Amino acid sequence: MNAEIQKKLVALAAEVGVTIETPKDTLLLFCGCQHSEPPVAVIPLDQPQHDVIFTFLREISHFTPQFKNPRPLRMPWFINRPYENEILGEATYKTRRVLRRKCGEAWHADLWAMTAFPLVGTKDDLKAFLEHHPEKRILYSFALVGHVTAGMQKFVRKLFHL
């Protein structure tokens, strides 16, 4: 693994309170917690660099404050309202169930990892990851929208702060 990327990952892990050890071709993530034995994530380094970066970021995401104190999933008004029509009511009920199942912890961890990926990895790593895992492209588009929105918010704040 690239030494510069490894330094960025270690720094990011330190920010969320995770310590890292690298014994013999594996990466171990330790998180300080209240239990006598901290949780450990073992990441083998013999996989491609882009997969190591994503796996590492995904494991770190489990220790972020957003993951420990998740917000409830917000549903659009037309999915949450009761319908007298039985077919429409059943359709909205099933939609809510699918959204809750698909947008669970794993989805949040993947989204956090995709959001942090451009900050740690190179463009080539991200491109290789998306080519190797085409199912994550939609997730990346969500992360990209988040980056653009955050950038626009910073710009507007600076504009009105002047």
Q: Give the helix/strand class.
A: mainly alpha
Mean pLDDT: 78
Radius of gyration, CA atoms, in whole angstroms: 19 Å
Read across the widest sheet, the strand sequence of neighbours is: 1-2-3
Q: How many structural domains? A: 1
Query: What's the SSE pattern?
Result: HEEEHHHHHHH
In the predicted model, the low-confidence regions spanning at least 5 consecutive residues are 31-36
- Could you describe the largest sheet, including whether it forms a barrel? 3 strands, antiparallel
Shape: globular
Q: Could you estimate the helical fraction of the residues in percent?
A: 55-70%
Number of helical elements: 8
For the termini, the CA-CA separation is 43 Å
- Strand runs, count: 3
- The quaternary organization reads as single chain
Strand content: 5-15%
List the helices and strands and how they pair.
Elements: H1 3-15, E1 18-21, E2 26-31, E3 40-44, H2 49-61, H3 65-68, H4 77-80, H5 86-102, H6 105-120, H7 123-132, H8 137-161
Antiparallel strand pairs: 1-2, 2-3
